[in-house]
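Sequence in, structure out.
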Amino acid sequence: MRRIVPFLIAAALLAACSSVDCPLYKTVETKYVLAGEVDTLHDTLSVMITKVDGKDSLVLNRLTAATEFKLPMSHRQPADVFVFTFTDTLRHTVTDTVTIEKTDTPHFESVDCAPSFFHTINHVRWTTNVIDSIAISKAQVTYDNTKGHLLLYLKPGH
């Protein structure tokens, strides 16, 4: 019994020294900020993305009265294609497609943690049914999404 106690203490100390605090929330999101004449969302906005496997996924559901929102970015494809669906109070819907071309960079906290991916936004394309324009404000997308990455300009009346 006397031999087991020092062994358990040594094992506990070694385990404590090798533990690493890996980030719990590793999703890297792009922050969109409404800018220009329409700086608050009056219509209801839902956003879908097509995944690598070809299935659509709802990433934002029925957002309204917002000045900003966040959308996740993938790390398995060089461009993300989002379908923005705007629905007004009379339930008329209009869609716009936003394509974000990006470069993915693996980010390692520690060899004990799974990597996350940071992104550099290279180019943005969009259709112009409701969206007037999109400007890149901060091209580097990391864990820090306190500042807007993309400025979203909507046409008046939306």
